[in-house]
Design a protein that fits this description.
single chain, 323 residues, alpha+beta, 8-stranded mixed beta sheet, 5-stranded mixed beta sheet, 8 helices, 13 strands, 33% helix, binds 1,6-di-O-phosphono-alpha-D-fructofuranose
Length: 323
């Protein structure tokens, strides 16, 4: 069986209702396969022993990864609009002359963690899928599916299907892994769930704790309670650690002097859907609601967040909002 056939079969087993949505996910898998190749062939400045102050080489990689996803979604023939962190405009990707009935829109970050790539750390792609035309003025809760790809020693794709998109009977999150020769996808985690409690923390934008007293108190609490630190500086591996261990908490919080940089459309909403479909909770820094209820009122909207085990997110709310 081919890569496309294996992922199609897996998604059929997870009872994806809509044939076009199934195809959309399969082609995001194809784009992720292309990025795996790009990363394998990327020679970092460190490795090449060359200097590139402007980061041109790295910029190229970001653009190449962006192009890989745009190519894949155009090939799928089921997307009408896409916007990405690299191409931050609603871009028409629909096949020419099609009436676009039953098409989808995509918000994505092709290469999250590009600043840690020269250290050969794991990086990722993040995808949020909406029905219809456009990603503006939507909420994360309206997504029909989301996915992240983790490029590490293995390439894995973690897919969230909310119950409205599957006949599976409930929200489901699962993981597929690309075989070493890149020819097939195999299910590697059948049901990803997040337990209520987990003393593992990934405190992003930690510099904010210097002038955000509430964040500082929360971090001190976690340290005094002997939480285990697992942090790489890449949101995909850092949140993925929660999926792999079924527990933990990830934060990225602002202060006056250090604003959080995660984008609602490209990073927060898609990752938030996976976390909530796996039984975890999400919240943010504006108030104590879910990130999935925040409106994407502009493409670049940024939001400090907390994701993970429900009891840990409850602690975040207690320290940040006093409830
Ligand atoms: P880059 O893509 O520029 O490396 O940024 C990655 C990221 O947006 C996200 O993946 C991390 O969680 C976050 O930055 C790390 O931020 P801090 O360095 O402020 O903790």
């Amino acid at each position: 069986m081919t890569r496309i056939e294996t992922l199609t079969k897996i998604l059929e087993d997870y009872k994806v209702k809509d044939a076009n949505l199934l195809k959309a996910l399969v082609y995001l898998g194809e784009g992720s396969h292309k990025i795996t190749h790009l990363l394998e062939n990327y020679i970092s400045h460190t490795y090449a022993g060359t200097q590139n102050q402007s980061g041109d080489e790295q910029l190229h990689l970001d653009i190449d990864c962006d192009n890989a996803i745009f190519e894949a979604i155009r090939e799928s023939g089921v997307f009408s609009i896409a916007a990405s962190e690299e191409t931050p405009v609603e871009t028409d990707v629909s096949p020419e002359g099609d009436d676009q009935e039953g098409f989808f829109s995509l918000g994505f970050d092709p290469l999250d963690g590009s600043s840690i790539i020269d250290a050969n750390f794991s990086v990722g792609s993040i995808f949020g899928i909406w029905e219809g035309k456009g990603v503006l003025n939507r909420t994360g809760r309206e997504q029909v599916a989301s996915a992240v790809t983790l490029y590490g020693p293995r390439t894995t794709l973690c897919i969230a299907l909310p119950s409205k998109s599957t006949d599976y009977g409930k929200d489901v999150v699962f993981e597929v892994t690309l075989t070493k020769d890149g020819s097939m996808w195999e299910v590697s985690r059948d049901q990803i769930t997040i337990k209520a409690e987990g003393k593992v923390f990934a405190p992003g934008n930690l510099r904010a704790s210097n002038d955000n007293e509430k964040y500082n108190a929360l971090i001190k609490h976690w340290i005094s309670e002997r939480y285990t630190l697992r942090y790489t500086g890449g949101m995909v591996p850092d949140v993925y650690h929660i999926f792999a261990k079924s527990k933990g908490v990830f934060t990225n919080v602002s202060s006056e002097k250090a604003k959080a940089k995660l984008r609602l459309l490209y990073e927060v909403a898609p990752m938030g859907l996976i976390v909530e479909c796996a039984g975890g909770l999400t919240t943010h820094e504006a108030h104590d609601g879910s990130v999935l209820d925040e409106k994407i009122d502009h493409l670049d909207r940024r939001l400090g967040v907390c994701f993970g085990s429900s009891e840990e997110v409850a602690l975040y709310k207690k320290f940040m909002f006093g409830n």
